[in-house]
Structures are given as C-alpha cells and as structure tokens.
Amino acid sequence: MKNYPDIKIDGFISIAGFVNANFKPNITIEEFGKITMTLIDDNFSTVVYGINGTINFRTFKPMSDEFRAFKIGEAALIAPEYRKSNFKSIDLADFFSTLSIPTLNIIGEKDALVPLEYNLYFANLAKNGEKIIYKNIGHSPPWEDTKSTTSDIARFASNI
C-alpha cells in the first residue's frame, strides 16, 4: 500500500496486530531471545526445537495436533538464509494513521506475542477503523475461533 499508492484498496484487515520497530512481545526478552536464537542454528533438529518453542506462544487455548503440525511444517520450509538474515523493523504507525479506508483489527485478548495494549494502539490509529477483541484467544484467532473470525471478516467485507 505504501509502495503503490495508486492501487485501489477498498479495505484492510489486520489479524493479531503488527510487528513494528518498537515491538515488545508479552514474553520476556530472555525467553524470546532464547527461542529465536535456535531458529538460526545450523543444526536442523535445533531449528525444529526452536520452531516448536515459538509455536507454543501462538495460541491461548490448547493447540490442536493439526495446527501444531501445520505451523512446524510451514516454518521448517523457511530457507536457512532467510532465518539467519537480519531484517530491519520499520515504524508503521505514521503510515497506518494516514489510512482512511475501512479497517478491521481482529485482536486476541490473550496474545502472548503481540500485547493487547500494543494491538489497541494500532487499532486506534485507524481513521475509519473497527476493532474486535476476542476473549480468551491468543495470537491465532482464525485457528482458535474459526467461526467468529470467518463471520467477522465476511461481515466486514460485505460492508465495503
């Protein structure tokens, strides 16, 4: 959206918030660092252990075996070069606050990765924004409450 300002976009949906330049997860920096360091190891079994560790923070409700297998498989396919690359976080707040298109923010109240306060900060920047906070849901609303997420997205999309 920022790189192609002439493209027509009718609406924007954010699920589980933004990772931004000043992002701080709900878990301690030590926990987060210990887990993420395993993701750049050259030993694949260490990487899978790290992937499994990060997945534990994805949901508030117990995770199904299917979802765990899906996320481990998805993450394991990431090229080692990408996992080891240093990417620069950017500040999205200024850009997001300029959006006037309808915006839906779906937020998990119990998100261990993106704190509720952080999600609310971004949701409140939207000029034409709506926010829905799912009680007792973590970082993966589509998996933890598929029916509500699908219904809310369909309702939002049908109104734009």
UniProtKB/TrEMBL annotation:
Domain Serine hydrolase residues, every copy: 92-145
Pfam families in the cross-refs: FSH1
InterPro entries with a match to the protein in the record: AB_hydrolase_fold, FSH-like_dom
Name of the protein described by the UniProt record: Serine hydrolase domain-containing protein
Origin species: Glomus cerebriforme
The organism's taxonomic lineage, starting at the top: Eukaryota, Fungi, Fungi incertae sedis, Mucoromycota, Glomeromycotina
